[in-house]
Amino acid sequence: VKITLKCGIFQGVLQHVDSNRSIFINKVKNLENGRCVPGMKMFFGHEIVNVQLLDESKTCDAEGMETPTSRENPASRMAVERRGEPLKQNTQGSNASSQETNQLNLCHFKSTCSDEDTEEAIEYIVIDQFQKKFGSALMHIKKQHVCAIAAEGVNLCRHGKLSWLQVATRNHIFLFDILLLGAQVFKNGLQMVLEDKNILKVIHDCRWLSDCLSHQYGIMLSNVFDTQVADVLYFSMETGGFLPNRICTLSECLMQHLGMPYKQVSFMARKQHAVERNPEVWFMRPLPPALLNVLALETFYLLPLRMMLLDEIMSDLTALVDGYLNAFREGSADPLGSTEFSCMEIPQELRQLADFHKLRREKALQKFQQNEEGLLIRKPMGTVERKTARKEANQGESSGLIPMNRVAYLTTSSARPICFLDPVSQNNCNSLWPKAIGNFRQRQTLPVEQGTNRCKRGPCGFFVGER
After folding, report:
1. If 0-12 CB within 10 Å is exposed, 13-18 middle and 19+ buried, where does residue 239 land?
2. Taking the model in full, what pTM does it have?
3. Model confidence over 192-210: pLDDT tens digits?
4. Contact in structure between 35 and 87 (CB atoms under 8 Å)
5. Do residues 221 and 199 lie in contact, with contact meaning Cβ atoms separated by under 8 Å?
6. Distance between CA atoms of 322 and 324, rounded to whole angstroms?
7. 224-226 and 200-203 beta bridge pairing
8. Distance, CA of 22 to CA of 7 (rounded, Å)
9. Over 396-445, what HEC string results?
10. Which of 148, 235, 368, 466 could form a disulfide with 376 if both were Cys (CB 3.0 to 4.6 A apart)?
11. Tell me, what's the pLDDT at 56?
């Protein structure tokens, strides 16, 4: 682009346009003296007189440069190509109307997305400058006890580069543009949040982000609930101590533990396809709204996923405590007089934990195959399962199962419900996760007439076997 200011004329590759109409460009060249300015330069909106989209191929040929990659393409080119329109070029012989067309209005630097991309639209806040929204966002995050964290970049580790850091709370989703904000974003408060031991961070596979933050920014990520680790722990519990041969992706965890249909987790497939087409897609500025929506969604579902995994992991504890509650009060009063309170032998109600493990191991060996290392082979979702999931998704939409743009009202096995707020309207949602929560609670509290068909009843009053 060619930018005409009140005090000069500059040329460079467009990177970003913020809400104040300030423009960020790199490979900056001062056209008045021919000097090149290293790094990225910011031009304030009140200083800009005119902006022109230059002929990219001719400009590169004149300067002996290669055509920029998709990471460096101007946002206007991307927006026009997505609409399927030809990109208009400047010519010396153009009339006044064509010149007026080539004068780019700054408000048109917003990318457009199709109706398909907006099916799962969710409200989020992009933080790309320190002046306005950064302070209030950071104050809100610091008040939380639990928040979800995700990140995107290229080769995300000590050798890669971080581009986006997403933070989701019960009420808001913040997308921090690390590429534009730089390392200063951590020094201005994000480091305190990531290292705060009083704020629980929910992350899916924290290894890569932890390595990147530690070696590139000196940040020691702490107090983390990793949903990938929790999924393996639950699998080990359900199989009587066996380990799976592979870990689960975020989309697999959402489908397995929250009962979400495949269509609702398809945003992860769109993300993967975008990265395969362009590995540096997360450095595109401005980032298309469809990809911003993906960044928000992958962080948004981590909080309800944590609650469900906690319920599943704590299910054994809940069952054993229920047995403890009924150990004396539902039995005869005669033995109580001879029972010594100082007796430290493990009671029968707790001995059944060994029975749980034995039955689960037998069932696991029937359900799964073992590899050479003795790990259970957990297969990823195949084509048949995805077709079934798509069918369930279509049926779920007609019955109102799991709305597209909100987190539902979760009810756990505890007495107090955990409420998540609608991120768009900020009101409590009335809908339930019937498949995820209902099935789980059914396993916890089977009535006698349903439970005896599949399970045998233990002496303490709860069922042993398939829950």
Report:
1. buried
2. 0.62
3. 999 999 999 999 999 999 9
4. no
5. no
6. 5
7. parallel
8. 16
9. HHHHCCCCCCCCCCECCCCCCCECCECCCCCCECCCCCHHHHHHHHHHHC
10. 368
11. 65
